[in-house]
Amino acid sequence: MTSSTLEPRTATGMAERRAAVEAAAHRIRRHALFMGEVQGQGYVGQALGAADILATVYTDQLRFRPEDPEWEDRDRFLLSTGHYAIGLYAALAEAGIIPVEELETYGSDGSRLPMSGMSTYTPGMEISGGSLGHGLTVAVGLALGLRYRGNAARVVNFLSDGELDEGSTWEAAMGAAHHRLGRLTAVVDINALQADGATAGVLRTEPVTDKWAACGWRVFRVDGNDVGALLEAFDAAGSGSAVTDDGEGAPAVVLCDTKVGRGVPLLEQREKAHFMRIEEHEWAICNEQLEAGWAARQEASQAKGQEEKA
Ligand SMILES: Cc1ncc(C[n+]2csc(CCOP(=O)(O)OP(=O)(O)O)c2C)c(N)n1
Ligand SMILES: [Mg+2]
């Protein structure tokens, strides 16, 4: 497995930033398949779908010190969806907060990397998230507390579309706008899926853009597997004239339409995608498909670059 530690924001130009994030997203996908294979199952589809979001946040957006995960001025990333922990562990390994070698302990007895995220177990895991629908409420309190203390850290809360079924999410959304928490960003993984089936069939939450706007948020909706679009949305969400130096302003939400299993066609087509059981012989196919897709994309972007130069 390739390993590398990413320093946040080493790249400056948009093309460079995008390339750095895309490479990190690929490694996050690789790590996720590796962890899934060790366990033989898991929330692999979510990690693959959200890899571009996680890479954007950890490679490009957040300020943190890998050697000091408790650094007081760090930006906070709150994963309210505990079952997405596999994706976050991959991102934390990429960020240098946990060792890449530790990923193979995922889901094992005594591991710091349990299947559902636990803040007391894992460095860089800000909250425990097994009970869904609470992350945004914690994020609101945290953002408010940081502002009272004069700390300019950004708070980013990652939610799933299933969490939009929960009343507590909307109470928090209204509270954030009421308190003008301009340094709070919510990011929603709209993968159109929940444990009980398609999101549209469980509870119709659309039009979600209008709902967030009605609660007083600045809203950005993007293809959550398009790194360029993610970078632009996160840049706009994080700063700008919309937020005062004291952090007062409308909070921002980045609504990300993603594809479960993204990057591995075999898994993109799975019907039962919430908790994937993957046969032993299928892991090699998954890894091959991931690498083949990445190689093809690299070739295409190199050819495009040469065309543009010519
Ligand atoms: C408060 C609460 N209610 C129910 C559950 C059971 N549960 C676990 S995952 C899940 C699906 C939630 O939707 P989403 O996160 O969008 O699913 P995914 O995209 O990962 O398939 C549910 C209902 C839970 N963990 N917490
Ligand atoms: Mg979902």
UniProtKB/TrEMBL annotation:
Keywords: Thiamine pyrophosphate
Cofactor(s) it depends on: thiamine diphosphate
Annotated InterPro entries: THDP-binding (IPR029061), Transketolase_N (IPR005474)
Pfam families linked to this entry: Transketolase_N (PF00456)
Transmembrane segments: none
Record-annotated Transketolase N-terminal domain positions: 26-295
Single GO term (MF): magnesium ion binding
Highest rank taxon of the organism: Bacteria
Coiled-coil region(s): none
Family note: Belongs to the transketolase family.
Name of protein: Transketolase domain protein
Source species: Sinomonas atrocyanea
